[in-house]
Specification:
about 45 residues, mainly alpha, 2 helices
């Protein structure tokens, strides 16, 4: 299981730009904590 986690992390880092591009499609549904200090948003759904 740990090996799979390392592989996933490696794959994510190698393709991070593509992943970030895909996330832009859902920017109104995502909360990025490093960009947003309002933790009260976590409770809203």
């Amino acid at each position: 299981m740990l090996k799979m986690m390392y592989e996933w992390t490696r794959d994510f880092e190698q393709n991070r730009a593509n992943f970030e591009t895909k996330l832009k499609l859902y920017n109104k549904k995502l909360i990025r904590l490093h960009d947003n200090n309002n933790l009260n948003l976590l409770g809203k759904q």
